[in-house]
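Researcher: Batch entry, complex prediction.
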Amino acid sequence: MKEPESSGEFERIARLKRRFHRVVPEVEIGAGDDCAVLRPNDAAIAISVDAQVEGVHFRRSWASLAVLGRRAVMAAASDLAAMGSRPIAIFSALILPKTFDDASLESLAEGFERAGDELGAPIAGGNLASGSELSITTTVIGGVGRAIRRDGAKPGDSIWVTGTIGARGLGLEVLLRDAARDALSLPFVGAWLEPRARIDAGLAIAPFATSAIDVSDGLAQDVGHLAESSGVRAVIEIERIPLASGAGELGARLGVDARRVALSSGDDYEIVFTLAADQTPPIAATHIGRIEVGSGIGAIDAGGRAVESGGYRHFG
Amino acid sequence: MKEPESSGEFERIARLKRRFHRVVPEVEIGAGDDCAVLRPNDAAIAISVDAQVEGVHFRRSWASLAVLGRRAVMAAASDLAAMGSRPIAIFSALILPKTFDDASLESLAEGFERAGDELGAPIAGGNLASGSELSITTTVIGGVGRAIRRDGAKPGDSIWVTGTIGARGLGLEVLLRDAARDALSLPFVGAWLEPRARIDAGLAIAPFATSAIDVSDGLAQDVGHLAESSGVRAVIEIERIPLASGAGELGARLGVDARRVALSSGDDYEIVFTLAADQTPPIAATHIGRIEVGSGIGAIDAGGRAVESGGYRHFG
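Model: Structure tokens for the complex:
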């Protein structure tokens, strides 16, 4: 942790250092020096940075800061998962409004700590600064054997996705509208608030996948990135997209099409990946489409007919 | 670079990727995938994160965004220098106000690029998010052989500092007061605006130094951190602190004591380090004090008498 100005800040940093202290073989020096020093077991490391800004990415009224803090770290760690990387250390840079009190910081820190413990990687440093709005910028560092690149998909490959898609988008819709939280909607709200980076899935597919990306911007958009990077066309069979139980019913209540939400909403933090045609995944995953020669993405129905593609971005 | 929402943002990201693209042996995958992937030549890596917020750490009226962007990266890299680490890659997470136009982003990026080129490390990724105020959060990654810790100073060690101390504090004072910029004051303003992380110095002292820290919060405070971490007392001989030419004169004009500014102002980005008593540094540096048994820091005059210590923080 870097030190800011006031003595109150020094005390805050000292408390955070104590909370985050862990004895971990690959973390030689944790928070408290100019830098953290890592000695990774792997020859290569993966790094990603993600920021969450209050009022843009979340509202404080939606959940405790512990839940929102954990979520910020998990969102960042999702990029490690999609690379086939194993988390080693987490760095959290906070911009805090002047009114942000010690109890709020403790709650946020509790969330970071929980995420770190779930990921098996300590919070090894960060930064505190003041500003007008709360933001959480998370840097994650992981070890990597074979990195799963975004640009390796080949015509003939099959497209797969972990978990279910669109539940977090529906949950976010409930939060944004302040809609009823009941037996139907609560699991969706919970899915948005408590994502889990698919680290184990990423490690399991790393030796086999020809490409992968995490579903953070929306399935269509993220598959579009993958297709664009790989110089191929991706065709998704809409009806194969795995929806969560109750998605159709909750969508109907909210007046949205659950399958369209699954294509266009973000925050799923699942992994979409491609495999050579003769491969099957070593984990539970759903086959949702195929890679073709060409560019952009297309959507087809079960009969193979192109379906109207409004509601998600085109890439060619 | 991670992708935000609008298509304008995707185009911005694409432009940044092109600008920052470098072929560098230790950077296996740069901006454009879920993560960057580094393959460091050293077995250990150092990591630090630093944030600069508009209105808190800088004002846009002070300089071009290129200068302010370069400065943000250099401030972060200074922590690598103090660890004896060699920069490998830089990650820049930006929170941009909605009104932040493309030309401003290009200027900021030019500054990042210039800093990266000076440091010999590419901008290998980052994040764009929107918010109400501009902030620049920089993560720096370096290779490290022997890390210079903050906690290794021993009684009997001598204390040294690179460069001059306090010039940036005086320059900041000129900026904050919007005081005259003339032949006397301009070099000080320039020193604040255009710091240079002392990477070469850090690498040169790494095999010998018993401890080191960069001077970012102010000499007294940073030496205080070093003493506290090492469990020792640091005694600084005030009159030995190396001031820049003209510091006394500019201080007199501003009505401040230049030596006191040197003790208490920050942003110097020089390195203060300790050596065993029989060692001399392999680089140009000034001997400013010694480590004793005890705690906290003390200030003495040339005759060895304790001097009044107002104006800087005590640590014991």
